[in-house]
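Why do we bother with holo predictions? Because pocket geometry can differ from the apo form. Keep that in mind while you read this record for coenzyme A.
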Amino acid sequence: MNIRLVRSEDIDIVSKIIVEGLDDRDSEIKEKVMEEIKLFNKVHFNYYYLAELENEVVGVLQVLDYEKIFHVSVLSILKTHQGKDIGSHLLKSILLNLKNIQLIQVYSNDAAKEFYLKQGFRYVESACLYEINTINIHLDQQNHDIEVTTKLMKWMLDLDKLTTGYSKRPLFELLIELGAKIITYGKSGYVLLYNNTIGPVLAKNFEIAINLIIKAIELGGKYITILEPQLSHYKNSTKITMRNLDIGHKMRFGDSLDKNLDLEFAIHSFGFS
Ligand SMILES: CC(C)(COP(=O)(O)OP(=O)(O)OC[C@H]1O[C@@H](n2cnc3c(N)ncnc32)[C@H](O)[C@@H]1OP(=O)(O)O)[C@@H](O)C(=O)NCCC(=O)NCCS
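The structure, written out:
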């Protein structure tokens, strides 16, 4: 098997393999994925590796590189070639054997959870993407603490690092370049709003988080990703009703990080999902 970095002429086959791996999702999401794949050449921390058998591309691995901490955003093998050790080989050759790696994270679907466990990953937590249907509370119009910006500030990156253990600066920069807005609450919290999706929501307390979420909804936010244990917290406190769209299991390979998840009220599933 040959493993190599993607080239621009591979776009069609890469899209095909990724979309094939998403066949339980609706077409709107597939189209979004296709659009985002087309941007891959622009981004310096985003790598696509391809597995080839006899010059035919049969698998794709997309990795976000945050220096020593990596996110697997896509691992997909052509249906006809699944179960032949290609996925495990691709993952091992690119990531699992790297010496200076601290942590690899992935949001796995139900089907692939067992696969990642076999590669040595451990289960961390589950997260769910919700569609926001209704909301019964409104923002205090006098609230002058809330602002909308596209400028990424140091305090935001510091809060991100404090929350999750590392800074996702390159991802945030990319999302802003692609049109994401940042909604801030003084220097006490912020939320990213990108493509109608709210998150991450990082805030020093629940009230701030809720104000940020409401503002994001006012500005067009329709979807939000939340860690499972926090769901009842949201439902009871805000009367947001949501339709369950998708679920992901966070899997970890390597060290855990110092983090304060109390500051993270809703999460974005890292990468482009
Ligand atoms: C999940 C996926 C990447 C695995 O790649 P693969 O090449 O088919 O897997 P491998 O042949 O390398 O399997 C390695 C081991 O994992 C096991 N495994 C693979 N997929 C599995 C699954 N869905 N459920 C249970 N075990 C699985 C294999 O049986 C094998 O076990 P063994 O070492 O005991 O023989 C591939 O099936 C795929 O592309 N699926 C669709 C897209 C997807 O869901 N990607 C993951 C998104 S997070």
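The mean pLDDT is 82.
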